[in-house]
Design a protein that fits this description.
This protein is elongated. It starts with 11 loop residues before the first helix and ends with a helix. Helices cover about 60% and strands about 0% of the residues. By secondary structure, the protein is mainly alpha-helical. It contains ten helices and no strands.
Length: about 210
């Protein structure tokens, strides 16, 4: 009689210890448990699906091989995220001239009015495009704290820097994002209709008759 397979109830740190001890399925379970969040971080940091995929693969190979170095000073998930972010940054640094990601010719984008280039530009910009304007260290901090909802302390641990540095990077990154997104916003329409002047010609004529 076959035994019913239940979801693995082992904690993350136990899975990592079992992996180090030789359990062939432990690391796969650990990755399955966190893959969605790891992929989201990789994609937002790299801003390129192909680069994110390669970085995530590099990170998981590194984590698989370096599992015995985990000291338990942080959560296993934090340790994995740190490796993913560093893999993304390493790949970006290795190709300093980063090409921009072309917008697809077909897809779910709404067709903008060709007579309004400002609306067309705004319709096609995304937060990911704006993130590309940030330096790598600021982007990583903003992704973890603002997009992933990490605490400053957890992000500092993942990025291997003091919390004050994370705060500074987030502050500068947010200011830059506000500037970039603000520059892409359509200007306030200016009315071409002359405002009504309560002291206009009719009022002056009536005043002259008094």
């Amino acid at each position: 009689m076959s035994e019913t397979v239940h979801e693995d109830a082992r904690a993350d740190d136990q899975l990592l210890r079992d992996h180090v001890a030789g359990d062939p399925s432990a690391f796969g379970e650990l990755f399955r448990r966190h893959q969605d969040r790891l992929w989201a971080v990789a994609l937002r940091t790299s801003r390129d699906p192909d680069e994110a995929s390669d970085a995530l693969q590099d990170a998981m190979v590194s984590a698989f091989r370096r599992a015995s170095t985990f000291q338990g000073n942080s959560k296993v998930s934090t340790w994995l995220h740190r490796i993913v972010v560093n893999a993304c940054l390493d790949r970006m640094r290795s190709r300093r001239s980063r090409p921009t990601v072309p917008l697809p010719e077909q897809g779910d984008y709404l067709a903008p009015d060709p007579r309004d280039p400002i609306n067309e530009h705004v319709a096609r910009i995304t937060v990911h495009d704006a993130l590309a304007e940030l330096p790598e260290d600021q982007r990583a901090a903003v992704v973890l704290v603002d997009l992933e909802g990490w605490s400053v302390e957890a992000a500092a641990e993942a990025l291997d820097c003091p919390p004050g540095t994370v705060k500074s990077r987030c502050h500068r990154g947010r200011a830059r994002l506000a500037q970039v997104l603000g520059n892409l916003a359509p200007p306030t329409p200016v009315s071409t209709t002359k405002p009504t002047n309560p002291e206009g010609p009719q009022a002056r004529r009536e005043g002259g008759q008094s």
